[in-house]
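Final report, closing paragraph on structural work. Over the funding period we assembled a curated collection of sequence-structure pairs, and we close with a single example.
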Amino acid sequence: MNIIKIRLSAMMFLQFFIWGGWFVTLGTFLANNLHATGSQTGMAFSTQSWGAIIAPFIVGLIADRYFNAERILGFLHLAGAVLMYQLYRAENFDAFYPFVLAYMILYMPTLALVNSVAFRQMNDPAKDFANIRVWGTVGWIAAGLLISYGFSWDSQQAIAAGLLKNTFLMCAMASLILGIFSFTLPETPPAVSRGEKLALRDALGLDALGLLKDRNFALFFLSSVLICIPLAFYYQNANPFLTEIGVENATGKMTIGQISEVLFMLVLPIFLKRFGIKLTLLIGMIAWALRYTLFAFGDADNLAFMLILGIALHGICYDFFFVSGQIYTDSKAGEKFKSSAQGMITLATYGVGMLIGFWVAGQVTENFTEVDGHLWKNIWLFPAAFALAVFVLFTLTFSKEKTSSSEELLPQGAIERG
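Its predicted structure, as stored:
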């Protein structure tokens, strides 16, 4: 591996170490440290969606037009370090929320920026990108292992002592390091010249709206938005659930999900080629229903294996639906609308879909909250039933078809989350 690839890999490692270092345990921190309600927790998590909605404006209309990608990446992470420190200092939800909102508005555009910096240095992105991007997943895993097995911040005693807030301090330091490091990355000048006209619809991916005239794609698009509701329950509730019922080193154990993502990514091209897009997407959907059923009936003692299996299903849940969905979108778009189509589906899922999902998860969680904890069985059965309903809808309405060149497309549709 040459020096450029090593630097790009380090960039990816830090990028996702930061995200995994605080986002996984956010729900647990809010409930135990700031005594946030289910609705307030949903508000905090939905800042990711607001960031995803605003990101195209920052990247498409500002970064791609006026600044080198590595410089704006550095600036955003330096500003993020300051905001992370403010999250560390926050003593109540009212003080916490403005800073987490500001942070996610700045962080979400960096996901596109690190990809831009990486792609511009590659002669063969389809071959090289996956080998660099995987270090992002390694960074996410490393953060979880460090929290659970290095510092034990997510142990019952540490949570009671308020030590979980140290995750924000750790991520502030990592963000500071990445901010400074970003200015040393290879120069990545604007992709669009200043004199070139760039419409808002281009930045938001709206040119690809014509794809919705295709009945199959419209059904896939709708299902993608709907399945984000069960997805939001995992990101928002999994860590608080595991911690509350007494699972030790919950954050570290949740890294099994990221390891699973990498493993199932390897078999996804083979599966797509042999069985086609419909069956692949359906397996991803039913895996969500199965995972939440396992969570509903598992426990921290004799049935702990059900919880571990539910976490391990993350690779199938995410890869077989969201990554294969990126591949399907690419194959349907054609050369002219490839970028626009990916922008549109990202805006619809991580933006609108997850925004709705976090709100629903917050309302359901609050509805099943008691003085001494939560009725977790009731909470998990809701997304299980919802995912099953989406599965049935998709089964009955989506016509069977195959994607083209799935093996070549996969590396560029690599995991967006760690």
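The longest strand covers residues 369-370. The radius of gyration is 20 Å. We thank the funder for supporting this effort.
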